[in-house]
Amino acid sequence: MKVLLATQKPFAAAAVKGITDILEAAGHQVVKLEKYEAQADLVKAVADAEAIIIRSDKVTAEVIAAAPKLKIVVRAGAGYDNVDLEAATKAGVVVMNTPGQNSNAVAELAIAMMIFMARTQFTPATGSEVQGKTLGVQAFGNVGRLVGAKAKALGMKVKALDPFLTDDQIIAGGAEPVHSLDELYAGSDYLSLHIPALPSTIGSINYELITKMPKGATLVNTARKEVIDEAGLEKALEDRPDLKYVTDVAPDNLATLQEKFGLRVFATPKKMGAQTAEANVNAGLAAARQIVDYFATGNTKFQVNK
Fold first, then answer.
1. In the CATH hierarchy, which top-level class contains the domain 2-101+275-297?
2. How far apart are CA 154 and CA 143, in angstroms?
3. Does residue 4 have a pLDDT over 90?
4. Domain 103-267 has CATH 3.90.1150.10
5. Greatest CA span in the chain, whole angstroms?
6. Segment 14-64, tens digit of pLDDT
């Protein structure tokens, strides 16, 4: 099978070698499309691809239509909103992600962001400590559980909300369960977001929720920018000069937020959650192994467009 490694932002060299070794050992051909300049380059490259590995690259309906032999797309990472799932399903293409491979990297970044904001972005101003504060985790999956565990190691109290988990499962993961967004936000000095961008979540983190947070609270977003109601966030920061926002996914109104609120707002220059050498390799190798397993046995364990 011909496997296209399509990465506008390439994997590390070690990851590329590992991916290639795994696929070639199983008898597959690997073709690389790295640092391409336009979406048209990807559309052209998929013409005879039977499998594709991507990172943040956009597999649109146009890409799928241009790939008549395509059977599987694997997004090396947890999020998959850069793939048109409806178009893939209609074309009979399996779409998978690689959950858990980037989790520790994202969790470490979330904790680092909390401390960075607690210490006033490492300026000489007097900061605060995270010990003794309460962390709320919205979505208690792979990343959320790791954030909670690291926060507890720093002496924080951890609460979590996840509609897909029972109270016992949340407790087993090391957090106190809460049962509503209002309760979670009202009781969290730090609120760490780990929800996907879905029709039900896009724009859901709004003025009403944010302003329920306690005095001096910080909202931490290592999820997706689309889940934030950006106008609501701006108004919340205006009306509540004690609140802070730190994000790994810069909002469209970042320049305005930084001009208005200074050190109360910070965004990384680009999405950094998975940008560690370890996560880079782990996600890439997992993607390659899933493709090999799919063609060898039909395993669709990590399919996201069922």
1. alpha beta
2. 17
3. yes
4. no
5. 61
6. 999 999 999 999 999 999 999 999 999 999 999 999 999 999 899 999 999
